Amino acid sequence: MTLSRPSVGGALLLLSTAVVALAAATHSDGVRAQAVQPAVVHVESGPPELLEHYCARCHNDDDKVANLSIADLRDNDLLIGKHADEWEKILRRTSLDEMPPRNKPQPDPAMRAAFIQWLKGSLDAYATAHPDPGRATIRRLNRVEYANAVRDLLALDTDVSRDLPQDNSGYGFDNIADVLTVSPTLMDRYVNVASKVARMATGMSSPRAFVTSYELPKDGSVLNSGRPAYNERAGDALPLGSRGGGAFPYYARHAGVYEVSGWLNSNTNNESDRLKEDKVSVRVPLKAGAHTIGMTFHRTLAPDESVQTLRNDLDKVPLPVDAPKPLPLDVLVDGVRVKQISVPSYRLSPRYSQQNFPRDVLQIDVAGPYDASAKDDTPSRKRIFLCRPRAASAETACARKIITALAHRAYRRPVSEADVAPLMKLYASERAASDFDHGVAAAVEGVLVAPQFLFLVESDPAGSAPGSVHRVSDLDLASRLSFFLWSSIPDDTLLKAAEQGKLATPGAIEAQVTRMLADPRADALTKNFAGQWLYLRNLDQQRPDITVYPAFDARLRTAMARETEMFFGYVLHNNRSLLDFIAADYTFLNQRLAAHYGIAGVSGTAFRKVALDPAWHRGGLLGQASILTVTSYGNHTSVVKRGKWVLENILAAAPPPPPPDVPALQETHDGRKLTAREQLEMHRANPACASCHVKMDPIGFALENFDAVGGWRKQDAGQIIDAAAVLPDGTKFSGFDGLQTILLARKDEFAGAFTRRLLTYALARGLIAQDMPTVRKIAASAAGDDYRIQTIIKGIATSAPFTLRKTPAK
């Protein structure tokens, strides 16, 4: 019996109607919000004459340089919160000593300091007295949040994000409300995923067998010699004494027999070939639920891993004369060997022989179930089926209990009869056509496409005036916290505290943050925040030129990402100082990455914390190969990309976009290959380019000792690298170590920049001028606590923009 599901049009109508209703609803019974009354602010008179003497010549209504005119600015603007955007822009430029420009008359340092202090104090005082949390926005869960919410709601250990299209990004993140749109096509995908998930979670999936394929991450064929294989453990899910192969998560929909197949390498010039001679299969029993399926060989002590450098054809490569040897290939389920297959050490192909690399697995297929048995009591079924009716007369009451509990967790608040009734209707319709379990599955599907689950919709107190500011309800605050720290729904502990109104008590939010950061779900901050802040998600798309960097391979790429993820996670979970991101005396390495860095004494594939010698020129984010690789091109470094990355991500001082038709850098001159410095010196001869490059290039030059994949080098284009640089203010420094010193001297700027990025991610919107006082307050608080990262996180979680809400205009 198949589970009926609503049409796409019906689901969209349900969504649009319910979202409008949710946006208008107050839920006054669950809102313990208090209006925030504006206070009186007193601003001392300051020295605005600095603007008249040093700024008005360029920033007037006629010239309007940088699209800024101060003609309409008045010092009493700061009393009434007027022209906040312009005043914040002025504060930032003067604080960074960027204005007035170096070639213009400069104010006395005392005058500049007094102006900055007056302006900052005035802006911050007004923001404290008149908190403005910005525009309230209904937000759709992005695909990662949706998948995490499904996992935690239904105890379903499978990632459904891959079944949904990639989300758009705004302000550097893919959880920004304004870009998370809804279309009929997207809604159709959500309906399809909800149908699939509901069946899996309730055990109602079709017992029909089908194949799930997993292609192992491998390098491409090297000079037509096949895809490389290595005599080392291929992943943490495989045994210590293993070699090659791989493992992947698989969800068995039913208990039964499954066929696990491996496609082995054949060292042809096109390893995408899948020939039956290279396939091995076994059948294994699996219980319903989540598993890890793997295949691996045994590691050998002295394998022949020589790579042929000639093109692999029968005229140049001799055929093997020894008979192939039998090799044991283990089939693993959840880390335990369940079967062993004997395979030949090579297969003589009609094209050429399999002798360049050890035998390895390129792809794993799992087919099934065959002979499906009765439904297992999986974690999902235990989570959903809180009761089992003993008679038909008890089914409706049991279904209501199940659906009410499920909706309570999914909607992240107590539910009413109006919430439960539509779900009970879905249950009743499917129950009449099938049975109790199918009826519950229909209700689960309804929950997963309900706007109360799919959207974060916050409520306002009854009677609140449009534009008024109030504290968000505890229930809405719980969702804000959980999606900020976990990219998922609140757990029972947080939801219970919100329902009891305890989040408003002093210290409650900080205690929840401490608890939640200790939970494994806080790894979402590493994957989602750090993955986007540091551009780690771009690493998979990076394709270094193998002729220039022949040592670069899939193992190294994976190790690069792992180092940075473990480094960020260590700083986060151990409440380390933010300054570790600039300069740290430790990192996380395995043998492959340590060899890339030229660091001895690290053996094996497992990662471990390694103390760094300053002579190795590592430590901090800018010494890590992942960052250096994503800020390079495939065959050479990029001074500009690296400089821009530091300005944007470390100092929050992004340069303006380049003008149109910017000419490419000239790589040669008079028949001689130019270094990166020489190329940019010629490029900066254009005045239109010089103004931006004067900020970016010194930073990029300091990192030129790192090649395009993060290896250390001393020469470029046959010349000794000159890593000396001069900042726009005349400060001289040299190389990576000098850049670290410069950035540490600007640690308050970095704390502010990090806070801006994390606050953007937490609020799921771009920051506005009214948010800048909050950024300064949080960063200053962190500075007083050795710049500890959790101080910033707790500062955000208790800040006005995070805990307050403005009632939208009608």
From TrEMBL:
Keywords: Signal. Residues 139-202 form the DUF1587 domain. Residues 398-458 form the DUF1595 domain. It comes from the Bacteria. Residues 1-23 form the signal peptide. InterPro entries: DUF1585, DUF1587, DUF1588, DUF1592, DUF1595. The keyword Signal applies. Residues 729-802 form the DUF1585 domain. Residues 618-716 form the DUF1588 domain. The keyword Signal applies. Residues 473-599 form the DUF1592 domain. Coiled coil: none annotated. This is DUF1592 domain-containing protein. The lineage of its organism: Bacteria, Pseudomonadati, Pseudomonadota, Alphaproteobacteria, Sphingomonadales.
